[in-house]
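Hey everyone, long-time lurker, first post.

I ran two proteins through the pipeline my lab uses and got sequence/structure pairs for each. Pasting them in order. The first:
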Amino acid sequence: MIQLPDHAGQALKTSSPEVWQELEALLAKDWPHAAGGTMPIMAMAIDTGFRPQMVYEFAARHPQPAHGPAGDQIVAPRTVIPTKGTDHAFKLIASVSGTDAARKRQGVRIWSIGTHCAKQEFYDWLRLDLPTDPDEAFPAGYQHYAYGDPDFYKGLCSESRVVRALSGKIEWVKDPAVRNEPLDLAVLCRACAAVCGIDRFTEEEWAALEGSMQADPPRAPATMSFGVRAAEGLAQMITAAELQSMRDTLQRAIFSGTRRVQFTDRAVEFNSVDDMRKALADIDTAIATASGRRHPLSAWPCTAGTR
């Protein structure tokens, strides 16, 4: 949860630009992985139930899931998924807004979450027993948390499933004395995982994802940020075709969210996305010099999936 204090120590409202700037920084951040190295956020869900226009504007600046008859697909890291809750009890992703409705919102679709379904599944997972054998695998859905704040766990368990006697209607009733944002976030994270395709992953796909993580990759002493003069010298040593190949490789890495880039002759571990952008601009300068132009090519094309 993002709660930024104002000058009086009170949480800022979501209408404050500072809140969205903080969310932008959070989305752009790379996160450490248990196997070593880092990884980006693949998808971020934002509820549109309050101040929807601000959510639409934020989502329109970022990649969004592809949606079609075959389902949903995340095509770039740092994807933003606008959502709204429904009381559907049997489908996690209840529906996705159509093309005509999306046109009215700057091309932004809304994913409707079956919150009743998600909460029931989540509370069933919380009841799973911890394995007694240290060599036994955790059961699917077992929840792992590292937070020490007891209010967080109270928030996770802040609602109860109630079946109305007369109508048989199922409702989830919030404890009025407890904030339920942790449970809301658990529901949104589950929806993100579903849109990412986690429910369709095969063992081979899980193994491929695990194998793509670099365990404690070595860091190169340089970040390939050359500067204009060095880039001009680089243009004299490497052909334009080789420079273009370097540029394509680097831009694919930026698009995929990895900071370890395997060039033809070496692997480079960049310290940040900004370093990668600087290297990309320097390569563009070198390409322009090799081609006889005085000015570099555009260093940062505005294509879907790049930031």
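...and the second, right after it:
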Amino acid sequence: MVEHELTNLNTARLIVRRFEDRDAEAFWRLRNDPDVARHQGWPFPYSDSEAASFVEVMARAPVVVNGEWFQFVIEHASDAVLIGDIGVRADSLTGEEVEIGYSLDPAYQGHGLMAEALTALIAYLFRVQRKKRLVAMTHAINEKSCRLLERLHFTLEGTLGNIDPNDPEAERVYALESQNFVPERRP
């Protein structure tokens, strides 16, 4: 694993950064949005003390440690509002493969913001952290997430659980190899 201290990843509209103590309330609201939580594995409802504790740990945690999850904040740059997060976990053996997961406030969906945030983070993971492969799992019924991953050149590798695409428990597994990464170009 390559150790690097995280600096903010700035895009045209976003800042992808580590958590800060000031993020606890906005993070708590995001975790308690039923439209966000339905495709995630965290406890629902999510208590304010869980959110504060999580933010405190992530604010001080090392970035991308093998076998451990690390969450990044997605902040809207124009108003400094936390609008989502991206979690990453490098595999515990070599650290070359990283699983990613993400969530975005529904009010900000449909504007290409998650693609923008993920593109910045993917570039960081491949170019700075020198990761070789990314894996993402999404519920098969979460068509927006599936389309997003495909737009970012992730390849569908298979389905876990029931292969019925309407089964809310079935998950699609996508992967992106570093040599297939194509940064999105937005006007």
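Reply from user beta_strand_b:
Welcome! Quick read of the second one: Helices lie at 24-31, 34-37, 48-60, 113-128, 143-151. The mean pLDDT is 86.
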